[in-house]
Predict the structure.
Amino acid sequence: MQLIIRDLLPLYFDKDKTRLSDIWGKNIAFNKGERIKIVAPSGSGKTSLIHFLYGMRKEYSGSIGYDDKSIAGFSAEDFATYRKDHISVVFQDLRLFPEQTVMQNLEIKRQLNPYHPKEKITEMAQRLGIGDKLSSRSRICSYGEQQRVAIIRSLLQPFDILLLDEPFSHLDNNNSEKAMTLMLEEAALRNATIIFADLERIDYYPYTQLYHL
Amino acid sequence: MAVSFQPIRPLLQTGTNTVSRWFSYIGLGIGVLLLLCSIQMYVNIQQLLKEGSIRKNGFDFVSITKSVTNQTMGQPEKNLFHQPDIDELKSQPFIDGVAPLVPNDFRVKLSAGDVLPFSTDMFLETLENDFIDTIPPSFTWREGQPSIPIILSSDFFEIYNVFAPGQGLPQVSKETAMGIPVQITAEGNGRQEIFYAKIVAFSDRVNSVLVPKAFLDWANKSFGTKKYVEASRLFIKVKDANNPDLLRFLDSKNYKLNKDKTLLGRNKMVIQGIFTGLGIFGLLVVLLALMLFSFYLQLVIARSKDSLHLLLMLGYSPSWLGRNVSRRFIPVYISIIVVTLAVVQLMQWSFHHFVMYDRPELSSFIHWGVIATGVVLVALSMVTNYRLVRRMLGRLGEAG
């Protein structure tokens, strides 16, 4: 699946933002299997971009299209289908169900369109070091643990594009690297595009394209 | 694999509004009960007063005669209605139709054959079918047909049963009377012919012995002497038999109105009006309860807003969520309707048994229309609920 943005700019940004940005106000196509790195300092609109691409917010000018289908014409049902089958995301603010256990949080996502069997949840959790947290309520997990839950959750469905919004903000280098390796493996399995937005470059992400926001 | 709602259910916060939820349930129950009861009573009244009604299609049918006074006594032509009289009546704005009760112009003798030792001179009349309250399909006659269908006045029939024992005759039920073939001998113009007649219906409206118009026209021509038979009684069709203009007009012409038969029709109208009012009130209560219920539903959704929003962000379809959230209330609706139907059934049985002493016109069971209304109510509530939840989820999905 190809992701195409044309002349994209948040409504609350000035036009001159486009001068210095590789993304805002430009026409770009992200192709299948590419690993995109978007480096963006605070306040440059990183989270806005991810939310626009995921169809959560509409305060922008320009257009976003998946395989030439503009998301401006998507209904709530269309978005549901895309989020279930084609696009996965790790939110910066994690967004877990606080009163549910880690396992329940993951199962709620997995049952929608299972790419992996249920046993894979345990395996992934163990790989990322939260194997013993599966039956804990997510609200009592640390931010670092919650972030790993959010990462695993994004890998339980089929996807063509994986959107990452500062996915390692609460993780140390060692854990970040483990999580990155897992995400790269899963993306490779699906021949999917990764769009990874972060404050700075990281060494263990072998990007194919680099953009500054 | 089908997506299960089970892990989603705990995300909906419903627990703390128990009181308001039960208020909605009870309100809905009372409203539905009022509505269904009114429908059932409406049906009961229809069935009870079906026989006694002189109203048909919203009209009163009443008979008028010319008042017989000392001056007109013995001068039949002065007590008969002539064509100009009928035309004048027809032209009045408050009269919607006029039909003469045409009598026989020959001698008629009735006997019960071998069944009852009973024979009497009698009269026959005919009236346009539109003016008769009970017309069975068999009420027709064609030349050459040996049997004649008769519609007998219920009052005449009762009078017979009152006098029968004194005359050494047996009392008979309506059903039996309809099974007895009687012989009618028509005599006049030097001819005599015997017909077999059978009572096919009883009329509460027309105090007469009615035969099909085709028969009497033929018989008057065959056995009668007059060219043209005039009626002493007319039936008029009016919107309201108590219309002052009508009464004033009839008084001025010295016509007498046979009015007691309109009373039952009036009573039925009043009772029906009361139950229609009660039904409308019930409908309003149902509407109010449904509104209360929708507020409760909105509260549930507002309280679970964050969870529902996250589910939508994870890729749950709004229509799937809407269907499942509103489906949770189906058992509630069905229970309310089933309990209400059971109560209405119990009330109907008690009403039939204890108040109406098992009268055959009524049934101990509720009318199918009441059950159908219940089913329609369940369907309606489910559809409105689904649409409400779906709309609210749609709004949630648009918010970032």
Notes: The CA atoms of residues 40 and 199 of chain A lie 5 Å apart. The mean pLDDT of chain A is 92.
